[in-house]
Amino acid sequence: MAQNLAQSQPYEQPSVAKPLHQPQSAEQPAVHQKRLPISGFEILLSIICGIVVVCFAVNIIHSQIEITNAQRNLQTTQTQLTKVNNANASATQEISELSSRSRLDAVAQKNGLTLTSQNIRNVSK
Fold it and tell me: What is the mean pLDDT of each run of 10 residues along the chain (125 residues)?
């Protein structure tokens, strides 16, 4: 029942009284932080560290360029190697075709030669 009563009454927010005059805060003196002077050694050390960082960055970039050039040279060499291997395979196949028994018989008959099996010797490396 108390709950029903609380629900039926509208909720009013309490009003906050605003002061007419705001109290002026005591002015605080401006605090100036005193900067510490930087010594010549600290400046020199900072410059040297900056130069070292720049040198490392240049060295890394140079190394990356060298790696890229080496990879390009490797790819070119591999391409040339593949071409030579293909040419060698083609030449080996052509040699096998030209030295086949049937071709040798055809060339011998064309030129009027006879082939005697007793005179044939197989030589292998």
Answer: 60 62 63 82 97 98 98 98 97 90 84 77 75
